[in-house]
Automatic annotation (TrEMBL):
Heme keyword on record: no
Pfam families in the cross-refs: TPR_12
Keyword Protein biosynthesis part of the UniProt annotation: no
Domain of life: Bacteria
Signal peptide boundaries: 1-23
Stretches that traverse the bilayer: 353-373
The entry's keywords: Membrane, Signal, TPR repeat, Transmembrane, Transmembrane helix
TPR repeats: 78-111, 158-191, 196-229
Stated name of the protein: Tetratricopeptide repeat-containing protein
Amino acid sequence: MIQKKIPLILLCSVITLSAWANADSLQTALDTAKNQYRVKTLNEFFRKYHESDPAKAVGYAREALNLATEINDKKGLAAAYNNLGIAYKTQGALDKALEYYLTSLRTYESLNNKEGIATTKSNIATIYSMKKDYGQAMKYMEESYTLFVEMKDEDKIIRSMNNLGNLHSEIQLYEKAMSYFSQAYQLSEKKGTVYADPLTNMGNLYFRQNNYQRAVEHYEKALELERESNNKLAALNIIVNLGITYTKAKQPKPAQVYLDESLLLCNELQAFSFHPTIYKTIAENYSTQGKWKEAYDAQLKYDETREKIYGEESSRNIAQMEMIMEFQQKDKEYDLLKQQDEITKLELRNSRLFIVLFILGGLIILGGLNFFYRKKRVRRM
């Protein structure tokens, strides 16, 4: 089916302290920052590099995680878990990504941090969408969108609209999807900053309607914006889409140019989750040209990378992991109830002991008074 060809990569959000201007100011801050401020700076370094140099970004996220654990900085810890989830998602390690996202979500929930909860739920929806579990993806994404609307965070609302549009597009509700993309684009124009994502997503919808010319027009506009902002991951997504579109349009030469470029950029960024889509399209493009051996080799690569990222074992691991986390949560609730029950029993025992001692004290006093009066009466006699 056509919708399986276009990699509708949902946007992942990074928890950050602030959007500092450049690496120099970040480095200056990092040189002097200590404790939770250093954790925040390290997480900000991840934001700075995760699109242009993911491998470098992971190093900062891991350092943030280690320091946050050491000093018990829960907010910084939650942000580091979220950022590592993004890194693993990019590498195609979906099980590990979900593990980090769920841990981040539990931590943000314990802090009652609404922004963190909304962002992490959006990222969890991304994983479920990639696993084709659209019911769970829609649940988490709608919950995330509702929270962003409550916070009136326009940037996050735009991202959520794009993600909701992608999900509706995946289940072939194209009119609803286009509505979300149009709203997102209009809101970005109103803000004075044109976002590339709505253009990319509109291109995806035109592709699914077999209007390849209109799709290419939107992709090229979006690619120009992403290159200007040095967003290499988003640019990679669009380059892959252009390769797919030209392949479907039976234009093998421009298709191969974009596909070759996408492979190079994919390996540079370690964005291995793109591999199955790229190799599948390369196989199709070679078969169009009658290059059967090259097509066969590319198909083998597709099978290998697809099994590695989307295999049944991966799906089972996610389900098992969620069950474990749910059981752990239930155990914590049970332990809490058990502790409360023990406290209640102790309070009851203390209350009973107090009543018994009070009665005994009263009896002793009465006995003493009785003994005193008897003794006094004996003296009179």
